[in-house]
Amino acid sequence: MMKLRVDKISDGLHHSEAVVTIHGSDGDESLVIDKRSLENGFVSVGYPIRFEGNLYLVELPRETSAGNWRIWVDKNQLVTGPEREIA
Amino acid sequence: MILTDREIRTAIKKGAIIIEPPPAENAYSSTSIDLTLDHELTIFRDDVSDTGIEMILDPTMRKVDTEKALESITMKAEIPSDGYVLPRNKLILAYTKEYVDLRIDTKYAARVEGKSSLARYGLSVHITAPTIHAGFDGRIRLEIINHGPLSIKLRSGMPICQLIFEQTLGTPDKGYNGQFSGQSPV
Fold first, then answer.
1. Which tens digits make up the pLDDT trace of A44-87?
2. A4 and chain B in contact, CB less than 8 A
3. Looking only at Cα atoms, what is the longest distance across chain A?
4. Residue A86 has what pLDDT?
5. How far is residue B12's CA from residue B21's CA, in Å, rounded to a whole number?
6. Which residue of A30, A47, A61 is in closest CB contact with B177?
7. Alpha-carbon span B145 to B133, nearest angstrom
8. Which residue in A85, A63, A87 sits closest to A1, CA to CA?
9. What is the complex's ipTM, to 2 decimals?
10. For residue A26, which phi and psi values (nearest 5 degrees)?
């Protein structure tokens, strides 16, 4: 399983949510996630769907503000890690 | 394939589906679980259109942070102990009290749907976006509209929607390691 680097921008509309920026290869996108998904600046994205050179296509846990589920990111935005801990 | 109450309980027991706090026994029906309304609401401000400035939201603009745009035209509110009165034709955003986690590496997705007991008063809980994808985690955001002829009182903790779990045919790409077997993707 992989984790994607994100930057927190702000809290979301609900206290349980955070708004983060994802650094895609085509530019930044914002995404609302549950704060529990955010682990030290990373969010779990499962396994990459495809890869081409240094670019990896990953599926996000939710739709971005621009309506995208899948986004190409540079390899350096990803780290390997376990799936979210079962609470 | 829709999960029955027995399959839902088994999936929860295995940790494939997480719902916190756990649903009460009477929240189950044969093929769904009722979720309840959280006390936090997001309410669209009535004064936005009175500024003399026309505001148009273009969701296709990649640089536009729609969450920030929403924040600028809404305000947060809490449901008082005696309830929140939702007027006719009013849209609000609300949330389930329950945190839901559909594990990436399992074969479950879900749909959030309204409850017939509320629908008959004209209350809808989502606007054409009921899908909870495999891998989702968080509270479910609801787009609530009162389409009915009368105001409707919403109370924190009331059963507001139902979640119907479906088993997917196979594991989605992001939960499947096959395409990278024998190689390290990163």
1. 999 999 999 999 999 999 999 888 999 999 999 999 976 555 44
2. no
3. 39
4. 44
5. 12
6. A47
7. 23
8. A85
9. 0.80
10. -100, 10
